[in-house]
Task: structure prediction
Amino acid sequence: MTASRIRLWDLPLRLFHWSLVATVLGAISTGLIGGGWMVWHGRQGLAVVGLLAFRLVWGFVGSTHARFAAFFPTPGKIAAYLRGQWQGVGHNPLGALSVFALLGLLSVQVASGLLANDDIAFNGPLYPLIDKALSDAATGWHRLVVNALYLLLALHVAAIAFHARIKRQNLVRPMITGWHEGPAEQESRGGGLPLFVCALIVALAVTYAASGMWIPAPAPLAPAPTMDW
Amino acid sequence: MTRNTTRALTTAVLLLLSGSVLAQQLPQLKPDEVIRYRKAGYAFMNWNMTKLKAMLDGSVPFNKDQALAAAASINSTVNSGMGALYTPGSDKDSGNEKTRLKSEFFTQPDKVKEVAGAYRIAGTKLAAAAATGDPSQIKPAFDEMGKACKGCHEAFRKD
Result:
């Protein structure tokens, strides 16, 4: 088995990754600042919704190493990895755990955010579908889950630093260039343009659904008899 | 300045000045009442903030009288001496009234003073900005008001 340069991460996956980094960091900042930035917090949250929807589809129709089935972390694979017997390329079994945890946690975070309210002037776009009490509960989850997200993001960055310093593996460069050392038979295949367009259409549809733009304006209340007091 | 504006500002100033007096001459309240009154105050301000936001983001037409009324309502509620409603032990539900006040409210008086001070200043500035009738001046004051609300939520409101 000769090591050579192979295409590891396809372009859509890399664009997804770095767009997610930018929007999540942005959403964390605007959420922490609050005030007028909440409008942007909502937009960034919707962008994350679209990106997650894209990733979900790409996990089934993307190229080899983007597919969930290719790196799904079974207990057997994790055990083999911990014994130093894992031979694959792409997400290693522990990294795969972190990928699924991050995608899952981000999904909970955007879902709760869509329903949230801040008791001041900002509501999530799907707030009109539920009552205030449920929205308050969703807001509580939103504020709780973000702490788990901080933890996982820190772990993600720490793992990259660990691989760079201790294991002498640069994980960042392949995520930028797409290229990695590996046996030729591991080269990524599939995930062509038509599939990308399909995933994009699904992502846009999900974002539209999450934006609440389709929710009809509530029937106006009968006007109060006098408006001059 | 219009007569309305002058009156709103005068009211705000009088309320500010009388804050300490208000605190000392209040009727006795029951624990469920302090919770009910303070929640009513915040819900009322929530409504007025929502009205301002709708006018500022263009989802309803800007109307300077309504903006002034909303901002003045927020300011007078902010500066109505609501601190008196935070009686010790009122971080516990009482009767049918539920509260999300954290018990830290009673152990961190300096932090309370800090967020409450920022909140009162933001309220006063919001009313002053609304008195200009100029949305471009109201917008930043509205944003600061929201941040001041958030300041207390972050510190003392349970999730």
The domain at 3-156 of chain B is CATH 1.20.120.10 (Four Helix Bundle (Hemerythrin (Met), subunit A)). Chain B touches chain A through 19 residues (CB under 8 Å). Chain B has a mean pLDDT of 90.
